[in-house]
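Quick log. Single chain, no ligands specified.
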Amino acid sequence: MKIIKESSNKNIIIPLEVLKASKILNSRDLELKTVENGFIVMKGTMNAMELIKIAEGLKNLSEDLITHLAGICGRCDDCSYCTRFEEFDEILLPDYLLEEAGIPINAKLCAYTEEDSGEIVVIESDHNYDMADVPQFVIDIFEISGVCIRELEENLILENIVYGDE
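-> predicted structure:
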């Protein structure tokens, strides 16, 4: 069940139909578990089967979200990026060099070459996310399924909305 509910006055009201569908309507205690960009409301006390059922529901939701993202990225048409993609390229520099350059130690870096000079220039990236931020299990699923890694990286770098309405 998916219900879009806008919050008002910093409170969220959970509709009765959602509580009924989740079978937590008559629960004596509820627990909120936070995850980045969301939260889960669940019974505060559960028997073994109830715990198994919520774990299964969360696994299914995770699969649905990854499947949705894969659909946005689409199948790879054997682009050169995906066929040579093995791992993200990570640039590591000593802290003292970053400090001398005025770049924060935890900054995301990118590099390019100066034409005909043989020099490599490393600068602070202007994007927040790239393949280095993607959990390995997502990369593995996409590679095995033939999903375009280049499209995923483009959505990450551009911070495109890939779920819900904008």
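The mean pLDDT is 88.
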